[in-house]
Write a structure and sequence with these properties.
heterodimer; A: 0% strand; globular; disordered N terminus; B: 3 domains; 8 helices; rod-shaped
Amino acid sequence: MVCLQAAGELEFFRPPLHSDPSVGATTKGRTGQLANSGDEALVALAQKGDRRAFEELIERHKHKAYHIAFGFTRDREEAKDLSQEAFLKVFTYLKKFDGRSSFYTWFYRIVVNVCLDYKRRAKRTSAGEFNETVENQMEPSHNPAQPMAPEQHVLAGQLSRKVDAALQTLPAKQRTAFILKNHQGLSIREIAETMETAEGTVKVHLHRAVSSLRQSLAELI
Amino acid sequence: MAQQTEPTATACPQLEADLVLLHYGDLSGVERQRLQSHTEQCAGCSVYLKELTGLMPLTVKIDTPPQEFWMDYSRELRHKIDASLENKFWWRPIAAFLTPRYLTAFATAATLILALTFTIGPGPWSSKHDLPEDELTEALPVAENLEFFRAMDVLDELELLEVMGNPANDAA
């Protein structure tokens, strides 16, 4: 009986096929309805097995998740993989989400933890190779619409490597607080919720991170 | 590893943490005003704040992936979710056969096979063990002895018949 119930659940999770135009119209209406729903409503639907509701959550949070992961990895492919891994974890554990914190706080906590785990794994396997692909990416604060002169490109590359190295020397908690504040612009309260710590502790981590970076990047000042 | 040199500005040590929060706009109204008025008078704190304003944006690496990236992102993620579901419920194809209808069919088939095996076949208890050559030669004399004993039985029976057919024996 359990098997049958589970099989039914699997069918429910499968995306529906829309050969009938009227079904497509209904789906469009439903998509619009889901797009107007709040995170909590979508989470409730997804917890009951509604795959479309979960996909709406993905569409809503994928950019932010990706950019948080990018803040940690500074590599496009790694950031994509890690943020997707976070979504998979959410998909697996969504039924355990009890709504005590907001969905995005819970989700960003997962993203941060996935990134920190990855960083730890990368450190164990090959120390210092975490950011080898950095040079292939865009330079700090560079507007992709404006092409850089070759000497600017070299300088930007050097700057990027220095910043990367400085960020990698930060302890995990300091780096997390710094990335969530400096890169993502989260409030101290949001960071505290994401890191599951007190606001005062976040302020201390942030201050120490900024001081360390200021020391490391003093020559750029 | 970045080469470390001394930063240029030295802010008031007890206000450094607040200056960081001021830079990020995370101070409440009263505290912000108090610190702003302090930085107007304190050269160290003022320069420190300017350094943060100049330096911190350099640590941000802007990445704006194209639209195709996001489409691939969603598609890949959907595949990954499907794959995770397949992995999670790998036992379902097997479990699908455990429905009452299939169980009845399995039981019937198993009964039929067993019945045919006992009826047509040599039976599961028949010995499939052939005697090796040396054991066979030992077994043959025993078989000959058996023939001898059978012959003896026939003789006994003849003797018995003779006894039964002789009237003198009856009188005795």
